[in-house]
Amino acid sequence: MTTRPRTQVRVVIAGGGIGGLAAALAVGAHGHHVTVLERQPELTELGAGIQLAPNGLHALDVLGVGAEVRETAVPMTELRFMDGVSGEHVTSLPLTDGYRRRFRSPYVVVHRAELHLRLLDACRRQPRITLRAGAPVAGYAQTATVTTAILENGERISADAIIGADGIHSRIRQQMVGDGSPRISGITAYRAVVPMADVPARVRRDAVTWWTGPDCHFVHYPISGGTLLNMAGSNADGTDTVFAGVPVQGDAVRAAMAPLPAVADLLSLADRWRAWVLLDRPPIDTWTDGRVALLGDAAHPMLHYAAQGACQALEDAVVLGDLLGHGGEPVPDVLRRYAEQRRDRTSAVQHVSRDSIRLWHAGGDAALTRNRVLREMTDDDLHDAIAWMHAPRVRGRHPSGATR
Q1: In the predicted model, is pLDDT for residue 229 greater than 50?
Q2: Which residues contact 356 (CB under 8 A, 6 or more apart)?
Q3: What gap in Å lies between CA 89 and CA 262, rounded to an integer?
Q4: pTM
Q5: The domain 10-74+109-181+282-355 is classified under which CATH number: 3.40.190.10, 3.30.700.30, 3.50.50.60, 3.40.1580.10?
Q6: Which of 1, 13, 172, 303 is the most buried (most CB within 10 A)?
């Protein structure tokens, strides 16, 4: 059962990734008609693991898919911080009883494709949501009363609002903001997934484990119900070109991650990796243009070091759906309020994600100082440090009508 707004609106969403589908669910649940336009020929998601803190799980609960996501998500008992040079266990942020009581939820990890599929299935069950693949949006036009999505083939689709959820290379953002290409971090990320049966027994199956070293770091955790180990490394190699999903042989990855001898055996588990250059953009003030607004990576792309990209997109979706669900207010005013509610929080996460490079990539004396400071922090200190990010921050209306 969905709530029915006083005034139905037609919404076009450019982008059928996690943020776009979540926005479709949030808006459609309030009785609005939604059309999702995805550039790729199929509605699929690339990549491997995603970490979901309580704020992200709470948003999924509001969207009505939290229980389904939990079916294959793996709850974590701690975030382990390791020195990848010495092999020392520096500290752990516990995620069990005290954490779950404080943040009203576990911390889980899930395969990105599985999360996307849960959202996609929920959209397919919603009669007010239309999904179109192979429909790349090139831009938009608008008047005071209507906005129009313009596809690359010249097709025009009119609506009351357009939401640009078309990622870090967003065409909607380019027209609205005109801030050019994303910022290249100079860091290459490597990702691989291996069967858990091949993983050494010393590797924790219930923890996200970070290994840090000079100009690089490595993280691993289970996904797909614990049957696979997701591995991701990053190396500040100074790359200045954009690439994504490029196949890389294991020898090249092991050479790039050589400053982390403590994980040499884990790096040897995979010979087929894929590489991405890490991109982001500085925070911006302009998220809306009349009846058009940005969401997710189109609005606030961030580096992966805070593990909050998906969580922040899910929060965006809940806030947008809730504001549109009230009905009666002019759409441009609703979109401005949405941006006002989300801008400061996402900007702060963008900043901490980039600032965290110093934490993960420290070497020499800086690494020794970091380790000492982290060891001196109590569990409460660690929880306090991440509370502003992990605590559920958005309120919305569940499709059943229950406020969460």
Answers
A1: yes
A2: 303, 305, 306
A3: 11
A4: 0.94
A5: 3.50.50.60
A6: 13
